[in-house]
Amino acid sequence: MSEFAVEALSIVRTFNDGEVRALDDVTLRVPRGEVFGLLGPNGSGKTTMIRILSTILAPTSGSARVNGFDVVKQAAAVRHSIGLAGQYATVDENLTGFENLRMIGLLNHLDKGYVVKRARELLEQFGLSDAANRTTKTYSGGMRRRLDLGAALVAHPPLLFLDEPTTGLDPQSRQDLWAIIEGLVETGTTVLLTTQYLEEADRLARQLVVLDHGKIIAEGTSQEMKTRLGNTVLSLSFANIDDASRGSALIIGISSTPANVDGTVVEITVDHGPSAAADALRRLDGARITLAGLSLREPSLDDVFLSLTGHRAEDEAFEQDGDKPKGRRGRKART
Ligand SMILES: Nc1ncnc2c1ncn2[C@@H]1O[C@H](COP(=O)(O)OP(=O)(O)O)[C@@H](O)[C@H]1O
Ligand SMILES: [Mg+2]
Fold first, then answer.
1. Taking 60 as the threshold, does the pLDDT of residue 315 lie above it?
2. Whether residues 176 and 318 fall in one domain
3. How far, CA to CA in Å, does 185 sit from each of 50, 51, 77, 123, 163?
4. For ligand 2, a single-atom ion, which residues have Cβ within 5 Å?
5. 207: part of which helix (H) or strand (E)?
6. Which among 15, 19, 197, 319 is the best mutation to test ligand 1's pocket, defined by most ligand atoms within 8 Å of the CB?
7. pTM beyond 0.85
8. 22 in ligand 1 pocket by Cβ < 6 Å?
9. Is residue 334 part of a domain?
10. Lowest mean pLDDT among 63-67, 164-168, 256-260, 304-308
11. How many domains does the chain have?
């Protein structure tokens, strides 16, 4: 068997007679035993890739092997060797948590006794034992996602596809799911995960591919990507637009990447936040410009995009993203 759990070569997938190129020459290799992250905004092609790899869609061109099986010629074998948890929870609302897992097991032709045992085990593992006999209608979003993940694991697949497992979840549920995914990988499962969150990819994935409009725009470890980007975003807010424009000129040279100006806010990515902040303050102080505010933060996916593509991820990119700060949408100005 190949050393890779997934090997996809030059995948192209078009829709509407070629009008939409959802995937445009995407090659990826997912090593066994780790989390691989497919990162990108809405519409970048993540779900299309997952669908191709899970044999729901055929590629327009290119080829892919999953657990050594060809996704077109050996689709059934691929399907038996993977677990899939989609972007939207697929559990049956009218069944209890336990019944949902049992149904999945039986649909997979697993032994009845085994299915009952496995369902209990998964409910326990994902903190759903107390809710096992409630209909899933009554479950919170986080509980549904955990159950959905459980459903993908009933048959013990060595490879799991997770399509935006935490989009729309509150921070606590997101943390819970991250811990579960880490636990799975510790026990030998390979995970291919799609996400819109750099933070999520950073926490879970060893290697990443960043997609934009169906094309790979960056790949490597998250550390490599961050190093390229600068580790920290220095955000300076000024009293007025005039100060902001003078200020942005003064801080040229603090970082190798250009400053991003949005009204009275100027941001740059830097390697070392505290010394860059001190440097900026010295320069501004020398020109008698007073800051209204200063903050340091981790780069977001938005920042990665800006840096890699020269444009921010489109507004609609984060439509489903409940906790994305609204104020950061739709920025245009850049110097
Ligand atoms: N069945 C389809 N028919 C037409 N266009 C589609 C279909 N599925 C996806 N697309 C288009 O392909 C692109 C990639 O979509 P998708 O893979 O769902 O992106 P993501 O999961 O990253 O949000 C989008 O432009 C989307 O509108
Ligand atoms: Mg999607």
1. no
2. no
3. 19, 22, 22, 18, 16
4. 46-47, 87
5. strand 207-212
6. 15
7. no
8. yes
9. no
10. 304-308
11. 2
